[in-house]
From TrEMBL:
GO MF: pyrroline-5-carboxylate reductase activity
Gene: proC
Membrane spanning residue stretches: none
Source domain of life: Bacteria
Annotated keywords: Amino-acid biosynthesis, Cytoplasm, NADP, Oxidoreductase, Proline biosynthesis
Listed EC numbers: 1.5.1.2
Entry protein name: Pyrroline-5-carboxylate reductase
Catalyzed reactions: L-proline + NADP(+) = (S)-1-pyrroline-5-carboxylate + NADPH + 2 H(+); L-proline + NAD(+) = (S)-1-pyrroline-5-carboxylate + NADH + 2 H(+)
Coiled coil: none
Species name: Marinilabilia salmonicolor
Length: 268
């Protein structure tokens, strides 16, 4: 049973996770506490039933789950700071992109039961794609983490060697998908809609396309075939996009992000 979750680092993702966990109806009893040095910036979380604080040690005391939501280069300092208050049983979760579990374990004096969790920012509305890898954890501990995150979206356990790929496809993927929506909106304005209406139409269309795949388990190309009338307008537009490098640009972007993680730039 989880009685207390401490989230160290109430930035973009830390705050989104806190909201997501609380909104999900809490598969646990007790408290979610988020820390940040400039705590006034996260005071508003209190209105959503989330505790906030500045004292990392105090937050970690008696916590069953500790989520490290700081930048990768801050991980080492934070771990040495909280270690005195970290109980042996606590499950340690790192969100840091590109820092592997073995390294985290070394930072934490050889600690076991370490999880890397890579949600995306849609966790704040219960629609995350959350990839998880576990390091020297028991099946029961894996189940605890699965149960914790399942109400916040879709959870997929993956081998740790795929965490960098998951980061690009799911976490960065939110930005890539949103850039598609923005571009579609701009195109929509050129062909006659006001920007608000163009955005509404473009975003619901993307949602519908995604749901066709998620619910129908169809292949995207099979759904595309249903829309592309022979000599019709869709295929002309689609082919023009491909002539301009649409799929290629997306794939190259994914690979560029992936290479950046793999090359491990330190100050991200
Ligand atoms: N899955 C995803 O969609 C994303 C994952 N990430 C990963 O999540 C982690 C957090 O990223 P963001 O939320 O974007 O960063 P951020 O910079 O918005 O948040 C980090 C927060 O930690 C706080 N912080 C720094 N030192 C602290 C300390 N000593 N005590 C308490 N709080 C402290 C900072 O003030 C900041 O608010 C990163 O490791 C990043 O790799 C980041 C963005 C998106
Ligand atoms: O852009 C980044 O480095 C972070 C990691 C995943 C999403 N945002």
């Amino acid at each position: 049973m989880i009685n207390k979750i401490a989230i160290i680092g109430g930035g973009n993702l830390g705050a989104a996770i806190a909201k997501g966990l609380v909104k999900s109806g809490k598969p646990f009893k007790g408290e979610v506490i988020v820390t940040r040095r400039r705590v006034h910036l996260i005071k508003s979380l209190e209105q959503e039933g989330i505790s906030v604080g500045q004292d990392n040690l105090k937050a970690v005391e008696n916590a069953d789950v500790v989520i490290l939501a700081v930048k990768p280069y801050q991980l080492e300092d934070i771990i040495s700071e909280i270690q005195p208050a970290l109980s042996d049983e606590a499950l340690l979760i790192s969100l840091a992109a590109g820092v592997d579990s073995q390294r985290i374990s070394e930072m934490a004096s050889g600690r076991k039961s370490i999880f890397r969790v890579m949600p995306n920012t849609a966790i704040s509305i219960g629609e995350s794609m959350t990839c998880v890898s576990s390091y020297e954890a028991t099946e029961e501990q894996d189940a605890v983490i699965r149960e914790l995150f399942e109400p916040t979206g879709t959870v997929q356990f993956i081998p740790e060697e795929l965490m960098a790929s998951a980061t690009v496809l799911a976490a960065c993927g939110i930005a890539f998908a949103l850039r598609f929506i923005r571009a579609a909106t701009q195109g929509g304005v050129e062909i006659g809609f006001g920007s608000d209406l163009a955005l509404k139409i473009a975003s619901q269309t993307v949602k519908g396309a995604a749901e066709l795949i998620i619910r129908g388990e169809a292949h995207p190309e099979a759904e595309i075939d249903k829309v592309t009338t022979p000599r019709g307008i869709t295929i002309s537009g689609l082919n023009e996009m491909e002539h301009q490098g649409f799929s290629s640009a997306l794939i190259k972007g994914l690979i560029t992000s992936f290479e950046k993680i793999e090359n491990g730039s330190k100050k991200r």
